[in-house]
Batch of 3 targets.
Target 1
Amino acid sequence: MHNPTTVDAYIAGFPEEIAEGLEQIRGAIHQAAPEAKEAIKYGIPTFVLNGNLVHFAAFKKHFGLYPTPSGTSAFKEEIAPYKGTKGSIHFPLNKPLPLDLITQIVTFRIQENAEQAIKRKKVK
């Protein structure tokens, strides 16, 4: 993969079956956050709304969703079946994507970012 500059270019760099999964994740995020803007940050697709909302990516054995540590801790029980780290969730390539869960996480992050934006305005 050569440094994509758009989400379309990032997704186009993968085999069809992986690209389909990436498009499903993208669609779930769009559904939850239609006003969010797409970008490439840290070399991976990112949705931005009052700051970084979520990132997502594909790897050899999993799709990664990066909703920040707060986005993973708020859904600790729901994401328990998946591997991950403090700020990421790994969805296996060979299993159906939990699109409803992704939508819920994105909805949580929208609210969280909106609250942080209000706090930033009050400080100014």
Target 2
Amino acid sequence: MSDVIAEKEKARVWSPDFSVVAETDDYAVVDKPPFLLVHPTKPGGPRTLWSELRNLFAFEIANGGQVSIINRLDRETSGLMLIAKTSATARRFGLLMQEQRIRKEYLAIVWGWPEWDATTVDAPIARLGEFRPSRIWLKQGIHRQGAAALTQFVVEERFIRAEERFAIVRAIPQTGRTHQIRVHLALLGHAIIGDKIYGPDENHYLDFIKNGWTAELERALLVPRHALHSSRIEIEGVGSWKSPLPIDLLQWVTRPPNAVYIR
């Protein structure tokens, strides 16, 4: 088994709360669980990482600090996020992001076995509704008039679960477009399991919005969220932090019926 699977002994017990991985006077690195919104979407809405961080860093904020989330994650995506606690640090990290000096890596569980061990996708991304009718307002896609998007992919593990083929893929985005990793993996023919928009059928997303998570959706998508995890952040000259595959995805990979793992 690969190092990704071997990390199971280090996996934290799943919790609806985030954990602080590292903290200084200027910044913090936190590990976000799946299903926790990052920013508020409406007044009186569900709890968010941003509001929780403001509570956690209330003393710093009262003394001139702030909470600036440097790398945003979707609600269903888990993993590491970088938080600036001062305006100067926020400006500094923002510049480092523009200069591609903050390295981010993700782990994704995808359908099928890629024929490649490593590959790079260089394909521009745009919101499809800007160019043609789209049933899903937020759906992104490949379009020649889109913003430049570049992602490197490396296969970490191939395995068989219940006679179906799957793989764990490491994704290293060089740009930061909306849904970039999900769109590029779908373009390669290896969509992320649990992905309601870019998976087998976009109707799954519309069904989910209408009816919530159902047995039918579980049979089609396998897991209740897209299996994407922010696993590593490295800031040039500052530090590097890792997060193992979270417990919900780890259990799906390591406790399946009749699993066979291929290096």
Target 3
Amino acid sequence: MLTATTQHALRALAALAALPPGARVLARELARVTNTPLNYMGKILVSLEHAGFVDGKRGARGGYRLAKRPEEITLAEVVRLFEGSSGLPSCLMAGFRNCSDEDGCPVHSEFKKVRQAWEDFLSRTTLSAVAQGAAKDLEAQRLLWSPEGG
């Protein structure tokens, strides 16, 4: 349903959301705990920073952290950044025929319900909800962070 890039971005954001307030983490640590190649993670972080989701800082006390509170970022916003929409095709028969509400394919009305449920899930689910589950995984992987100024 979602591209690999979106999945890596969501995992990186969940890891950042699970960190203590003010903590920063290096890109290489995010890449490690999310099983993402470092150069790929770097590109994802640049996109997330340009979109205002993360704040990156260079130097001895550098790293990445969320630019917004986790409860202010929905999964829908992140998916739209990388997918351009919900991550689901508008129709299962896309490319085979032009499908619309007025002239739908045989599965159009049922797939529309699935798509709406998916979009509702993405819109109501925030990073704070995802981070709760991620925190235990990150603790087990010993994610390293450096508190700002410390």
